[in-house]
Amino acid sequence: MSGSDQEISRGYAAGGAPPAPSRERLVLQRDDAVNIVERLRETHVDVHGHAFLLQFDTLIVRLGVKWHAKCDLVFEHLKTNFEKVYPEPNWCIGVNGDAWLVMIPQLSPRKGALAVADMWRDLCGFFVGDMSSVEVPIYDVLVEDVDRLSIGKIDLRTYVGPAQIDAPLRARHGPFQDEGGESGHATGGMAHAVPIQRPVIVAASVNYAGRTLKVASSVEPLFEMKKMVMIGHRLEAMVMENLDNALLDRKHLANLDWNLREQVDLVNIDQGLKLLRLRSPEQRKMMMVVPAAFSTFASARSRQKITVEVAKAAAEMGLKVLFEVRGLDGVPPHRVLEIVSMIKPFCMTVVGSVNADRKTIATLNKCGLSGVCIEYDGVKRDEAGLQDHLSTLAAAAKLSAGACMVQGFDNYRQMAVARLAGVTHASMKTAALMSPKGAAHVASRAAEGLRDSDAPLPSLSQGL
Fold first, then answer.
1. By CB distance 3.0 to 4.6 Å, which of 22, 199, 251, 324 could disulfide with 291?
2. Taking Cα atoms as reference points, which of 401, 427, 403 lies closest to residue 414?
3. Angle between helical axes of 333-343 and 300-317 (0-180°, round to 10)
4. How far is residue 175's CA from residue 159's CA, in Å, rounded to a whole number?
5. Contact present, 444 and 4 (Cβ < 8 Å)
6. pLDDT tens per residue, range 213-268
7. Region Disordered: which residues (predicted)?
8. How far apart are CA 213 and CA 363, in angstroms?
9. What's the 3-state SS for the chain?
10. Do the beta carbons of residue 415 and residue 229 sit within 8 Å?
11. What is the rounded CA–CA span in Å between residue 43 and residue 52?
12. Which domains does the chain have, with CATH numbers?
């Protein structure tokens, strides 16, 4: 699903009622896409809840470098076993190289979903072994356009099928929602048809000494790499100049005035917590990574605001807290230890973030940290080069603090290589998780949304 198609919403984070479960767009990248869509239209299997999609993202990660050699076998295995049990008019086909579309009109929607889930478990057991700890990546399917589908995540515990038979029919005659509306409510014929998406990114402005920045926040999925299991989220910010929406990189963020950086951190945490509250307990998983600069944690006022509000949110949502102290490059070890000692009573553990340099990582030894967090630099490398690069950093991090966390991967192949390189934990950009091909759209989409509205959200500094 394209990251550029994900709605950037502000109203929910500002205190509005949480919307219904989100839907996403899937563009069929096949020459015969029209034929597939027409088959769905003519049989009405999508309208009646008999069309499903399996996403193979987690399987691709687990197979790693073996995926390209085995992908054809995966689709062949599914097709062969499906056709043994479900003859015509039941039908299946691989789409986009990383998903499988299934139509089972002979079963009820619930039984069909459970049957597809069983196919997923059988597939995983055959190729990689037990993956019962991973949520079944199954979606219901509706036709949206001649080459585009609308898909929605299915909760197998509660799914029974379409809530109302005419809603999907109306969904075919308009977009997901009127993007011109500022309130985030659908208009026209779609007012009661398709639920508005949950916000993926929320944004607000901060200013100090005549300089205004825009802070776009998202919750990046966090993975434990040994079992390739999602365990939580990182509250991540993209910071942009107000004048031209230029994205500030790590170096520019490190050079911000401490007062401005403090505001950025507080707003990001506030927005990130609001995004997490909109998710179900199952979606939140078990942990949240809360990042802030060393200078922010060093401020008694900011430290108290963060620890109090985060502890309150963690108790409310049943989450464990991992504080990430950023900007530790050049900070004396005794000062790092001092700050870590002050915040450790309010969390499960603390990690430190530095540049991807072995010597800098080594300075974090004996600072009370449980791990080192490194930002993925985005440099283009082949798989062997990336593995060598990450192996060096992972070895240094483990020697210094015990764990190596890499933040902001663009796609699943990088995750698979990182696993081989010894990285213990990693996070992916939000849009990249929605589609392995969608990460490039995140910054541009956030900037677009920020240009549309300058209305700030309530910040943590105002709300505490």
1. 324
2. 427
3. 40
4. 25
5. yes
6. 999 888 988 989 888 788 999 999 989 888 887 888 888 898 999 999 999 999 99
7. 1-22
8. 32
9. CCHHHCCECCCCCCCCCCCCCCEEEEECCCCCHHHHHHHHHHHCCCCCCCEEEEECHHHHHHHHHHHHHHHHHHHHHHHHHHHHHCCCCCEEEEECCCEEEEECCCCCHHHHHHHHHHHHHHHHHHHCCCCCCCCCCEEEEEEEECCEEEEEECCCCCCCCCCCCCHHHHHCCCCCCCCCCCCCCCCHHHCCCCCCCCCCEEEEEEEECCEEEEEEEEEEEEEECCCCEEEEEEEEEEEEECCCCCECCHHHHHCCCHHHHHHHHHHHHHHHHHHHHCCCHHHHCCEEEEEEEHHHHHCHHHHHHHHHHHHHHHHHHCCEEEEEEECCCCCCHHHHHHHHHHHHHHCCEEEEEECCCHHHHHCCCCCCCCEEEEECCCCCCCHHHHHHHHHHHHHHHHHHHCCEEEEEECCHHHHHHHHHHCCCEEEECHHHHHCCCCHHHHHHHHHHHHHHCCCCCCCHHHHC
10. no
11. 14
12. 3-10+19-190 (3.30.70), 202-463 (3.20.20.450)
Torsion angle, CA of 41/44/47/51, rounded to 10 degrees? -90
The three-point CA angle 111-115-117 to 5° equals: 115
Q: Return the structure tokens found at 63.
A: 């197979």
CA distance 4 to 435: 11
Asked if the bond preceding 345 is cis, omega within 30° of 0, the reply is no
Amino acid at 355: N
What is the dihedral sign for C-alpha 173, 177, 179, 181?
positive
Structure pTM?
0.58
- Summarised one tens digit per residue, pLDDT across range 62-72 is 888 889 899 99
d(CA 244, CA 428): 26
As a residue count, the chain comes to: 464
Query: Cα 19 vs. chain centroid, distance in angstroms?
Result: 18
For residues 231 and 286, the answer to whether their CB atoms sit within 8 Å is: yes
For 330, the token pair is 């050049």
For 354-405, what is each residue's pLDDT tens digit?
999 999 999 999 999 999 999 998 888 999 999 999 999 999 999 999 999 9
Angle ∠(255,207,311) on CA atoms, nearest 5: 80
Structure tokens at 295: 């200078």
Q: Quote the CA–CA distance of 395 and 437 in Å, as a whole number.
A: 29
Return the residue matching tokens 């091909």: 437
Cα of first residue to Cα of last residue in the chain, in angstroms, is 37
